[in-house]
Design goal:
The chain has 358 residues and is of the alpha/beta class. The chain has 14 helices and 5 strands. It has 2 domains: 133 residues, 3-Layer(aba) Sandwich (Rossmann fold), CATH 3.40.50.2300; 178 residues, Hypothetical protein af1432 (Orthogonal Bundle), CATH 1.10.3210. It has a 5-stranded parallel beta sheet with strand order 2-1-3-4-5, sandwiched between helices. Helix 6 packs antiparallel against helix 7 and helix 6 packs across helix 12.
């Protein structure tokens, strides 16, 4: 408000009073607009006024009714009541309605009058500064929020890039391990393809398919820590070698554990050799303890092992492997998962055969 006159709206139905009070106000350096009643106040008032002075008793609309209307419009302009009939009843009513102060007429003490007007102007100045501060604060909050959102987007992009780089690196390590063994080459790729085929056939959500794909890619990553001579050994494994092989789900889960974004995958990797009857390893979990994604990996991993060439037995064809899965449904494998897989893999093979002949 510095550098400009305070703008005051004065309402009194007595022309002499309006003239006298406005002259005093202008003498103190203020700009004054005068009206004869409260209705004219409501017609003229806007946010540019700093103080409103109302006579309590006016013919058309008195001061108390006028301030009620002003309160409903939220101008937050200090209102001073001008009256020559001061009483405790008026004081109480004025305070209850939000009046800022009283001015008596006729004006007898100019200094007190000036002080009350200046205090009201300062009050208005404080209100305007507070309002501007709130606006600036809201703008600052919006700006900071936008900056934070942009930063979060960058961090999310970086996180996704880091996750992808980690997955690619681990995939390369596992593929390199598999390629050293003729009998296991391509196993992870096939298990992943079967898992995604089955996941789509079971109408899994997109996020579940992401988890399923990663779990399939790394279900055997624990074999990285196992002596390859044990894996590649022709013939039957000894009890000690078999115990060593059986450690790979736990080892794989431990490898994945530091990667916080693969918590669900860690569970699947640890339990992809469990059985529905609780006779699997490493923890002997039963069907009700295993989630749908783990049951999928158990089925497709076993199917690929049955249909792939091994150094210790002949591989089964598709029909034989499906019969084997169904034979052990409910004990080793989840029955519903086997049923959906059997239909899906047969449809896949049929589609492939038809397309290859076109």
């Amino acid at each position: 408000m510095e550098g400009r006159k305070a703008k005051i709206l004065l309402a009194d139905d007595d022309l002499t009073v309006r003239s006298t009070v406005s002259t005093v106000l202008e003498m103190f350096g203020h700009s004054v607009t005068t009206v004869a009643d409260g209705r004219e106040v409501l017609e003229l008032v806007d946010d540019s006024y700093d103080v409103i002075i109302l006579d309590i008793n006016m013919q058309d609309m008195g001061g108390f009714e006028t301030i009620k209307q002003l309160n409903s419009q939220n101008f937050e302009i200090p209102v001073l009541f001008l009256t020559g009939a001061g009483s405790m009843e008026y004081v109480v009513q004025a305070i209850n309605l939000g009046g800022y102060d009283f001015l008596t007429k006729p004006i007898e003490d100019l200094d007190i009058f000036n002080v009350k007007i200046r205090r009201a102007i300062e009050k208005r100045s404080f209100i305007l500064r507070e309002r501007q501060y709130k606006i600036s604060l809201e703008e600052d909050v919006r700006s900071k929020t936008q900056e934070l959102e942009e930063t979060n987007k960058l961090l999310l992009q970086y996180s996704h890039s880091l996750e992808n780089a980690t997955v690619q690196l681990m995939s390369s390590l596992q593929n390199a391990m598999e390629e050293k063994d003729f009998y296991t080459a391509g196993h992870t790729m096939r298990v992943t393809e079967y898992a995604l085929m089955l996941g789509l056939a079971m109408d899994l959500a997109e996020q579940d398919l992401v988890v399923l794909r990663r779990a399939a890619q790394f279900h055997d990553i624990g074999k990285l820590a196992i002596d390859l001579s044990c894996i590649q050994k022709p013939g039957k494994l000894t009890d000690e070698e078999w115990l060593l092989i059986k450690k790979h789900p736990v080892v794989g889960a431990n490898i994945i554990q530091p990667l916080g974004f693969m918590e669900r995958e860690q569970f699947i990797i640890r339990h992809h050799h469990e059985r529905m009857d609780g006779k699997g390893y490493p923890d002997g979990l039963k069907s009700e303890d295993l989630d749908q994604l783990t049951k999928i990996i158990i089925v497709v991993d076993s199917y690929d092992a049955m249909t792939s060439m091994r150094n210790y037995r002949r591989n089964l064809n598709m029909e034989e492997a499906i019969c084997e899965l169904k034979l052990f449904s409910g004990t080793q494998f989840d029955g519903e998962t086997v049923d959906v897989f059997a239909r899906a893999v047969q449809d896949f093979v049929l589609t492939f055969d038809v397309s290859s002949k076109v």
